Amino acid sequence: MFIVYSLMLVFGLIFLSLNPKDSKYRWICFALFTCVIGGLVAHYVKETFGSNMLPKEYFKSSSVKYLPLYLLDTYSFYFFPYSFLMFSMTHALSANAFFLKHKRKIYLIFLMPIILFYLIFNVYPKVNPSLIIIVVWAGIYIILSNSFLIYSYIKADIKAEALIVCITLIPGTSLTVYTDYILVLCKNFSIWNYHDLIAFVSVLIAIFLAMKHGIMGIKIKIEKKDIETSMKPAYPGISIINHSLKSEISKISMCADSIQENNITQNDIIEKSVIIIRNSLSHLSNLMNRTMKNTRDIILSKKLVSLKDIIDSAINLNEIDIKQASIDIFKNYDSNIQLLCDETHTIEVINNVLRNSIEAIGENGEIRVSTGTSKKFIFIKIQDTGIGIPSNKISSVILPFFTTKNKDSNFGLGLSYCYNVMKKHNGFLEISSNVGHGTSVSLYFPIHRKKYIGK
C-alpha cells in the first residue's frame, strides 16, 4: 500500500520538476499529495476502527483525541476537489487571455467555500460537519474538473496527448466522487476495503500510459526522455534564429539591390541603406549570441530601457517592408514610460508581432502601435488590418512550430518564442482577432511603479 502512495508522490514530484514555475504542474502535484493524505487516512481508519463503520467519537467526541485525524481527513476532503479543479482549469485555459490575467483572483474565488467550511463547521470542541453540503460542493468541483479536461481534449490540436490525460484522470476522479463522498454521506465505509486497490489500479494505468505514450511530459524511457528533454527546449531558439535570419537577410538584400539600381552619386540612398544593413546585422548578432548561449532556456538580462526606443527599434527593422507594402504606421505611445526588461528579446518579440502583421496585411493596410499602463501592467498593443485568425486557431498560435496551411495567414513560428519571452518576464500575451478585419496583440509586462515609470 505504501509503495502505491509513494509512487503517487513520485509522479507528483516529477511533474513539479518539469517546470516548477508552471502553475499547472504545481496544481497536479498538490492534488496528488492530497490524494495520498486521503488514502493514508482511509487506510488508518480501516485498520483502527474497522471497514464498515466509524466510531461516534470520530465526529462527536469533545476530546482532542481524533482532532488530528479529522483535520487530515478534511484536508483531503476539501483540497483534493479544489486542487484538481485548479489543475484542470489551468491545463484547459493555458492560452486564455482572460484566465491568465485574472487567474489569482479565480484561484481565490474557488478557495472561498473551503475557508467558509472551516469557519462554519466546528472542529473543536465538537466536530460538526455538514456532509450533504460538502458532498454536493465536492461533486460540483470534480464534475467541473472533468468538464475542463474534456474541453481541453475538444480544443486540442494534438488529440492523442489530450486523450491520454483524460483517460488517466477522469475515471479515477469520477469513482472518487462515489467512494469518498457519496458513500461517506451514506455512512457506508465498506468501499474503503477497496480503497488501496483503486489507488493501485490507477497508478498502474498511469505507469502503463507513461511508458506507452507519455503523460504531460513524462515518458518512462530514460534514454529517449533524456534526448527529448535536451532537444525540445532548443527547437524554439533554433527556429526563431532561422526565422529572423530569413527576415534580416531579405532586408539586407533589398538594400543592396537599392544601392545597385540607383545612381552611385545618390549618397542619401546609400547612407540610409547602409544604416539599415548595420541595424539588421547588429540585431541579428545580439539575438544569435544571446539565444545560442542559452539553448536550454531563454535567459533574460534585464535593464531599464525606454519603451518608446525599443518599439521604434523594432519598427525600424521592418521599415523597408512597411514602405514596400504601402502600410501606414500609427504610433500612440508615452515617451516617458520606462520598462525593466531584456532589451534584445523584447525588441525581437515586437519585431515578430510586426512581421506577422505585415504578412497578414499584404498591401495597403494599417498597423497601430500604442502603449499604456494599468494597475499592475505596462502593455504594448499592436493592431493590424490584416486577414485575421479563425477563432478556433487563436489558442494554437503560441504552440511551437504551429502554422496554418495558408502561408498568408499570420502568426507562424514567432509567437511561440514571444509567449516564452513574455512568460519569462512574468507577463503574458493577449490575442484577439476578427477574420477579415484584423488582429490585435497585446504584450503585458508586470509593473512596479517606482522602477518602471518615470516622468
From TrEMBL:
Enzyme's top EC category? transferase
PROSITE patterns, per the entry: HIS_KIN
Q: Which Gene3D superfamilies match?
A: Histidine kinase-like ATPase, C-terminal domain (3.30.565.10)
Q: Ranges for the Histidine kinase domain?
A: 240-449
- Keyword Transmembrane part of the UniProt annotation: yes
Cross-referenced SUPFAM superfamilies, in alphabetical order? ATPase domain of HSP90 chaperone/DNA topoisomerase II/histidine kinase
Catalytic function, reaction form: ATP + protein L-histidine = ADP + protein N-phospho-L-histidine
**Record-level Gene Ontology MF annotations:** phosphorelay sensor kinase activity
Transmembrane residue ranges: 25-45, 75-99, 106-124, 130-151, 163-185, 197-215
Give the EC number(s) listed in the UniProt record: 2.7.13.3
Does the keyword field hold Transcription regulation? no
Q: Name one Pfam family in it.
A: HATPase_c
**Keywords assigned:** Kinase, Membrane, Phosphoprotein, Transferase, Transmembrane, Transmembrane helix, Two-component regulatory system
The record's listing under PANTHER family reads: HYBRID SIGNAL TRANSDUCTION HISTIDINE KINASE C, TWO-COMPONENT HISTIDINE KINASE
Name of this chain's protein = histidine kinase
Question: Organism, per UniProt?
Answer: Ruminiclostridium papyrosolvens DSM 2782
Please spell out the taxonomic lineage of the organism that makes this protein.
Bacteria, Bacillati, Bacillota, Clostridia, Eubacteriales
